[in-house]
Specification:
- Helices cover 73% and strands 0% of the residues.
- It contains ten helices and no strands.
- It is elongated, with a radius of gyration of 45 Å.
- This is DUF618-domain-containing protein.
- InterPro entries: CID_dom, ENTH_VHS, Rtt103-like_CID.
- One of its GO terms (biological process) is mRNA 3'-end processing.
- GO terms for molecular function: RNA polymerase II C-terminal domain binding.
Length: 324
């Protein structure tokens, strides 16, 4: 079958989950590798319009194509899929079930293990999946799908504490920035790589038609990267504006709290001094009352003359006899 857009769409529509179907379509696509860029565009178009099971089949197809291309040292499809693989994988992962999500994660893990894509593309793909998990976690209050793939921390099952209301707008802005940044990185990487190849003075200049086609492709990649970076810049500026507003609000609150703290400290010192004066007055009053009570008791009850405390007794010596 000759290459044409309709032929590619027919192949993608006929794709099913069997290994034979995936390998057969992949071989046909690889045979027409001169049209790698267009095939990748049609593949992404079909993936966006497909149901979750079909999306998984298309991810399997892309996996077969890029792995076979890597093994044959033909980078046509690696270059073609690099700008779109993060977005496509995220779309398939987001729409799928837990079982589908686990399978897609396994494919992405294999790409890392076998160094299929450049590191920036791989990181961007994993980051997009992580964003989906975070979004699910925020909605459900639970953990994302999967286990400890990609180093253990990307898809951990720990549930995060709720975000304070003051930080929720910033969390949304940060999420938007993360998505924009993840989308921009692979596009910038591809544009820089292609630009370096095409402007390398040691690279032989191809024939004019081929040269024109490559320049056209580079222009498209540069425009895509420029647009993605522009989106990232806007998202980052919005986040910075939000952070500055939060900082200004907290600085105002800090000044208010410092004033309140100073007033409370001053009042506490005054009240402590007053309390001490009152307590000292109480102690002086008690001491005066005790002295007055002692003096009053002595006046009302005078003490008898001092003696040995014994009763009077008759003398043993009789008086002298009366003299007549």
């Amino acid at each position: 079958m000759a290459y044409a857009d309709d032929a590619v769409r027919a192949k993608l529509s006929a794709l099913n989950e069997t290994q034979d179907s995936i390998v057969s379509v992949a071989q046909w696509i690889i045979f027409h590798r001169r049209h790698a860029d267009r095939t990748a565009e049609l593949w992404l178009e079909r993936l966006k319009d497909s149901n979750p099971p079909k999306k998984l089949n298309l991810i399997y197809l892309a996996n077969e194509v890029v792995q076979q291309s890597k093994a044959r040292k033909k980078d046509d499809f690696l270059v073609a899929f690099s700008p779109i693989i993060a977005e496509a994988t995220s779309l398939a992962y987001k729409s799928g079930t837990q079982d589908t999500g686990g399978k897609i994660k396994r494919v992405v893990e294999v790409w890392r293990q076998r160094n299929i894509f450049d590191l920036a593309i791989q990181d961007a793909t994993e980051k997009r999946i992580q964003e989906v998990d975070k979004s699910r976690s925020a909605r459900s209050g639970g953990a994302g799908l999967g286990g400890s793939l990609f180093g253990g921390s990307l898809f951990s099952n720990s549930s995060a504490p709720p975000i304070p209301s003051e930080l929720q707008p910033l969390a949304k802005l940060q999420s938007t920035l993360s998505r924009a940044d993840a989308a921009a990185q692979p596009l910038v990487q591809t544009a820089n790589t292609e630009h370096a190849k095409l402007t390398d003075p040691n690279t032989p200049v191809p024939s004019p038609p081929v040269h024109a086609a490559r320049l056209s492709s580079l222009l498209k990649n540069l425009a895509a990267a420029e647009g993605a970076v522009d989106a990232s810049l806007k998202a980052r500026n919005e986040l910075i504006t939000g952070l500055v507003k939060l900082l200004d609000a907290n600085r105002a609150k800090l000044a208010e709290e410092e004033k309140t703290y100073s007033e409370l400290s001053s009042r506490r010192a005054v009240i402590e001094e007053k309390k001490k004066e009152v307590e000292d007055g109480i102690m002086r009053g008690l001491s005066g009352d005790a002295s007055a009570a002692v003096s009053s008791d002595a006046s009302a009850n005078p003490r008898p003359a001092e003696n040995d405390g014994s009763p009077e007794v008759e003398s043993f010596t009789p008086p002298p006899p009366d003299v007549e």
